[in-house]
Amino acid sequence: RRTSKLNHMLKTFGKWIICFMIGVLVGITAYLVKQSVEFVNEFKFDQSGKYLEDERKFIAFLVYYSINILFGVSASLVIIPVGQIASGSGIPEVKGYLNGIRIPQSMNVKTLVGKLVSLILAYSSGLILGPEGPMIHIGSMLGGAIGQVKSKTLKWYPKVLWKYHNDRDRRDFISTGAAAGVAAAFGAPIGGVLFGFEEASSFWSRQLTWRTFFACLIATFTTNIILQGFDMQLHDYGVLKFGLSNKYLYKYSELIPFALIGVAGGLFGALFVNLNAHLSQWRSKFFANKKIYLRVLEVFILITITSTILYCCAAFTPCRSKTQANGSQTNSLDTSSSSILSSSGDNSKNSTKLFKLLNNASGEDKQEDKFIAFFCEQGEYNQMAGLSFNSLDAALRLLFSTSTDIFTIPTLAVFSLISFILTTITSGLMLASGLFIPMMLVGATFGRLVGQVIALFVSVDPCIYALVGASAMMAGFSRMTISLAIIMVELTEGTQYMLPVILSVMIAKWVGDFFNESIYEHLIEQKCYPFLQSQPPKSMIKLGVVDIMKTEVVTLHEVERVSKVIEVLKSEQHFHNGFPVIERPRPLDPNRKDAYGNLEYYEDETTYSGLILRNQLICLLYYRIFCHEQPLPQNPRLLGGNSNRRYNQRRFGRPTEYGYAPADPRMTYELMTQSLARHFPPIDKMNLKKEEIETMYIDLRPYMNLSTIVANETYSYSETYSIFRTIGLRHLPVVNKKNEVVGIVTRKDLL
Amino acid sequence: RRTSKLNHMLKTFGKWIICFMIGVLVGITAYLVKQSVEFVNEFKFDQSGKYLEDERKFIAFLVYYSINILFGVSASLVIIPVGQIASGSGIPEVKGYLNGIRIPQSMNVKTLVGKLVSLILAYSSGLILGPEGPMIHIGSMLGGAIGQVKSKTLKWYPKVLWKYHNDRDRRDFISTGAAAGVAAAFGAPIGGVLFGFEEASSFWSRQLTWRTFFACLIATFTTNIILQGFDMQLHDYGVLKFGLSNKYLYKYSELIPFALIGVAGGLFGALFVNLNAHLSQWRSKFFANKKIYLRVLEVFILITITSTILYCCAAFTPCRSKTQANGSQTNSLDTSSSSILSSSGDNSKNSTKLFKLLNNASGEDKQEDKFIAFFCEQGEYNQMAGLSFNSLDAALRLLFSTSTDIFTIPTLAVFSLISFILTTITSGLMLASGLFIPMMLVGATFGRLVGQVIALFVSVDPCIYALVGASAMMAGFSRMTISLAIIMVELTEGTQYMLPVILSVMIAKWVGDFFNESIYEHLIEQKCYPFLQSQPPKSMIKLGVVDIMKTEVVTLHEVERVSKVIEVLKSEQHFHNGFPVIERPRPLDPNRKDAYGNLEYYEDETTYSGLILRNQLICLLYYRIFCHEQPLPQNPRLLGGNSNRRYNQRRFGRPTEYGYAPADPRMTYELMTQSLARHFPPIDKMNLKKEEIETMYIDLRPYMNLSTIVANETYSYSETYSIFRTIGLRHLPVVNKKNEVVGIVTRKDLL
Q1: How far is B179 from B140, CA to CA, in rounded Å?
Q2: Residues above pLDDT 90, as percent of chain B
Q3: What residue in A sits closest to B533 (Cα-Cα)?
Q4: Inter-chain touch A498–B189, beta carbons under 8 Å
Q5: Distance between CA A463 and CA A250 in Å, rounded?
């Protein structure tokens, strides 16, 4: 017993080590993404900036555009060898995996690398997309990879990690990785944990909370320390970071506009989800039978559109004096609101060093950094360029800055419309892209717009409105609640805006839920993942388990012919990977034997005995755990035993008295566990002799799972659903009152 | 179907309304507690302050002491009629209830009122105890009460709430209430939600998170608005509130002392748990057969000790000039460290208005409020009195204040020791008391002590150390993790200290876990609640379900004699409240009849059919749902039916074809649901006729639960445990391969 306690402690300690490594690796990855993007962006704006100085606007655009195209198309091309699974945000895949769905390729190293490269390239391409969604997927892939460093590609299976080679631990590490991804991306450790719990995971435990918190903290910290060294604070820098002042606080009467922004966020969010779902459907139909290079072409076209629109917006916006922006609020708004977006072009010279904004990672807003000159003269700046000809992070920082008058109302109105449209059409392209930052940008622009309109009449601080707008818009499309609120609070480094944020999130979610479900639910549905929501579909609530189960269930006998096992494994008729094992009753006539000289049994008795999985069968085949003759099933119950007698039957691999079927010495618990992490060759290449196949048997009794939950056929559908959902089942054999197998339920049957 | 969807929506909407009401009520209660305590404390310090002015120290003490005694003893006397359940923090009861244990009296109105009154009195008694634990229990009782406004005492059962009259909804409302209690007490809505999830609940869902968040927000907000009107912010005021400045930030090298404080917190926490557990054991043995008034006497003695020690501490501390406290840090520390606690008494006059500190609920530390004069002259103050002769909230505010030199090192050393000892002996007294504030006080004093010692050598800010110390100490005794970290962050209104807080919490928990379990686990164990931890006990992990199940299981037939049902209900031999219902096989000989003229059956066949609960049986008896003759069990399977045929058997109350046993028209689903919320008279008082009892039958088939999970006797113990824990089962029938009932497992069998 002391050894087992020590083992348990070692295992737990190992989990902490793994979580630490997840944190560090995710942190480093977030840093890599951030740093590469910053480098590329700086290069891009520097190069095109050179020509801006000389007033060669078109050449500047061409440089800007061609760099965008270069990166965007590369980001798209990277996806082709890796597979479609690496495109998009990956959140549906993470949610699906954590719900218990095995999505092929979704968690392997190839996808990880492809997604990472595609993300860095795509995020530098000037498209309106964010790194958070892909970071979550990357985090979860890292979690899955570290948890069981093995690789189908490399064929490397280290022994020390065998004990984590099971579904539950893998799932936990993937949850942790996803949460660490959020934490590192936003610099929000608590928000990361809550995201993992609320949005990503379907199964969660208290131990997991604490370990995940640890990993999130390490991830945030790692990113920060590499970026800035030991001089800075935990929250000084995520991949994204805003420094809201906490001098100005809102008044309670402002809760009404905040609530209205919440309503708007919900409406726009629902609209976005709707548009996006339709667009995705159209896309998948349109590209269904066409060549994959058309999808690259699509990216090309979209980059062209995006770059053109964003550049032109900036180019056609008149310059504005810096003194205007610094003037007192009411005055400056009056004067500036007259400078409506007109078709002008009297811009000029002098920018370069303003692009240094992107270098300046420190949390403090330097006054100078707020202004992008674009073509404007010294002492002037282009307000639209601050949003459109700028990295998204920097644009967001501008929107959240406390200077009340950097932007005019028309600029904000135009940009919120443009960014909404561009975000909608960009999402779903064949490159790694996330939605958080773009939707935040849309929301912040819209919120600031509302704030500035209100500021025309009453003295308010538009930066709070920008924050509220960003929260509302994100809640509107993602329907996240508490995790979103916390992320926003952590971004603003203070709790003083919590109430407005929470209010808008709550209202946006309610309003959005009135129209449709979140974008992730739509994507999951569209990708046909058998995702189990926490509640069963209402339309089916009155059914029983017999209405949904597969009745054509493939069963195996406790001691089964090798030929039958191979036949079952090769067959593609059945769609379940767990096979109920049934007992054979005693022989009717001990003198009757079948063709192989074995006793014949009633074939209509199918008493349920246990469950065996496909990969267990393959493993048994591979190691040739065959027996020469079929031993008699010696279940004492069937030999007339007393049902009150105590049997010491235990789980697989332990000594057993039940049916007197000890495990074969060639197949121990350790070997089986290790084997399940391996990748076996197809059955045809296992060099099984024809003789073996035809005459030998496999004794499944020591290996089958005896502790499976079994449903009686009287079960209701909703009960079945809730068992699947709470325990995370994959197969549920259904038996009748005589314990005969009459069917099997898998996840897909529930939907 | 449309009706059912509407009903579902109405039910969900109802839940939101109930959560809103929980929030408002908990908020008001928190306000009441806060306000009454403030009033009483003010009265107390005002009265004794009068005599302090005249230098009549002993009379001042007598006044102070007698008020303390008055309230403390009343708080204890209140418990006597209500019962022991109302004393202590109530957190073990809440955890136990949410784990699925029915603890008698733990959630009823009498306990609620008793606890509330006792809390207000006890919190004003000068004892070192806090209101948070009892507020959690009060919140959960309010949650349970509002969720199903019914009362055994008042016999009032409103119809509109029937649909929430089930275990799951009640449990959810109680979780919400507990979380709202934390939120209102600390002014920390997010911390409240996380507390509910991490510490209080064993079952949690995503829907619950969001509704609980809502309730927490409402609770926090209600308390704030009543206290201060609409001028203030969400976080301006919990029952407890600190205003840490965010000007000074720590250096990374300070993480080392923070980690050491974490270690110390873990050690002291473990020591506290150990001492407390022993003391509680000693108490329960000592008072076991003695009169309950001895427990009141214990309270009396403890108040005497506490008041004397705290008063004397203040009285024997020399006065200190206010200018010293305001001087620059290093200088003042040098000068002040010489003024060691000496036996002096040259204190004098002038206090009164300083007690106004307690009135001053606003978040801003006024300079004047930091000083308690006690006997000192104008321009001087008594540093110890600020801690000991003050309300605990005010003392905490002082400890967290940024003024670096209010306290000298000896004062802090003495007070941290005294408060640790007093907290240890106070906890467990017969009055409503919590541990959060006292342990926070101990931790903050200790932390500030460490900070000031370090400040002798390096320039640091002791208030951060106080915060870290408080976090570490709370983590050390409660082993809370993420919820504690968030509560501390919410208290400090900023995330800038998150890293130190998290670090110390993490280390304190690890260190503490090395020695023992949390105080709540110890209390739960001591109170013998069958609490299921999230992991099964390691010592039993290799057992099977047959090793732990009760084999003497009481079963009922599908159609059972009334006499048998009554016999089963009256018997006290068996310890399970759910009875497996078994099928009778077809009659052996249709001509053989028993004494009542019914067919006789094999008695050794016990095929499992469903599960019926004790209160369902009582309800059936009460409404006399009897049938005259015993209908033949017409299960088609036993009549030779094909097991592939689809039967439309559903859950209770729905039309059924299974065995052709429709529900009796007198007992509908609605009536049953309503009835289960009622309190029935004992069976002897139901006026059942002897004739009915002897000749009539009850047909259980329409009412029994057909969707219960059933364990095969091959189940492993750990599998069984995890099913109980994840699904929240109470009864698990165990069957053999022929589906005959061979045993039953209840929660108590698992431990």
Answers
A1: 8
A2: 10
A3: A206
A4: yes
A5: 11
Q: Do the domain assignments include residue A608?
A: yes
Contacts of A1 (CB under 8 A, 6+ apart): B538, B539
- Phi, psi of A710, rounded to the nearest 5 degrees: -125, 135
> In this structure, is residue A35 part of a structural domain?
yes
Average pLDDT of the segment spanning B327-350: 33
Give the pLDDT confidence score for residue B546 in this predicted structure: 78
Own/partner contacts of A162-168, CB < 8 Å, gap of 24 or more, are A162/A670, A162/A673, A162/A674, A162/A677, A163/A11, A163/A14, A163/A673, A164/A11, A164/A14, A164/A15, A164/A18, A165/A673, A165/A674, A165/A676, A165/A677, A166/A673, A166/A676, A167/A728
Region of residue A76 (left: phi > 0; alpha: psi -120 to 50; beta: else): alpha
Chain A residues whose CB is inside 8 A of the B735 CB are 739
Contact check, Cβ <8 Å, A209/B647: no
Domain assignment present for residue A254? The answer is no
CATH number at residue B128: 1.10.3080.10
* CB within 8 Å: A206 and B710: no
User: For tokens 């095995």, what's the residue?
Assistant: A102
Which residue of A176, A712, A738 to mutate against B (max B Cβ within 10 Å)? Answer: A712
> Do residue B5 and residue A716 have CB atoms under 8 angstroms apart?
no
Render pLDDT for B216-264 as a digit per residue (tens, 0 to 9): 988 988 887 787 665 544 444 444 444 444 455 677 788 889 999 999 9
Note every long-range contact of B40-48, with CB atoms under 8 Å and residues 24 or more positions apart, other chains counting.
B40/B67, B40/B71, B40/B120, B40/B124, B41/B124, B41/B358, B41/B391, B42/B355, B42/B358, B42/B359, B43/B67, B44/B68, B44/B124, B44/B126, B45/B355, B45/B358, B45/B389, B45/B390, B46/B352, B46/B355
| Nearest CB partner across the interface for B206, out of A4, A205, A534 | A534
Distance from CA of A98 to the nearest CA of B (A): 15
Whole-number Å distance between alpha carbons of A400 and B424: 49
When scoring B658, B737, B740, B744 by the number of chain A Cβ atoms within 10 A, the one with the most, hence best to mutate, is B737
Q: Which of B220, B236, B252 is the last residue of a domain?
A: B236
- pLDDT for residue B555 is more than 60: yes
pLDDT tens figures, A88-100: 888 888 988 888 8
Total domain count, chain A = 2
**Spatial separation of the C-alpha atoms in residues B140 and B669, rounded to whole Å:** 28
- The percent of residues above 90 in pLDDT, for chain A, comes to 10
Residue A528 domain flag: no
Last residue of a domain, one of A236, A268, A294: A236
Rounded Cα–Cα distance for residues B750 and B711 (Å):
14
Kindly list the residues from chain B whose CB atom is less than 8 angstroms away from the CB atom of residue A719: 651, 707
User: Among all residues of chain A, which has the CA nearest to that of B720?
Assistant: A707
Q: Which residues contact B185 (CB under 8 A, 6 or more apart)?
A: B30, B131, B132, B135, B136, B238, B239, B240
CATH number, position B639: 3.10.580.10
**Smallest CA–CA separation between A419 and chain B, in Å?**
30
Write out the residue range of the structural domain in which residue A561 sits: 555-706
Note whether A744 and A549 are within 8 A (CB). yes
Mutation for testing the B interface, residue in A643, A709, A745 having most B CBs under 10 Å = A643
- pLDDT tens-digit series, residues A680-726: 777 777 777 888 788 888 888 778 887 788 888 778 888 888 888 88
pLDDT in tens, B673-686: 666 666 677 777 77
CA atoms within 13 Å, Cβ hemisphere of B4 = 7
- The predicted complex's ipTM stands at 0.76
Average pLDDT, rounded, for chain B: 76
Reported as a pLDDT band with limits 50, 70 and 90, residue B352 is very low
Contact B233 A496 (CB under 8 A): yes
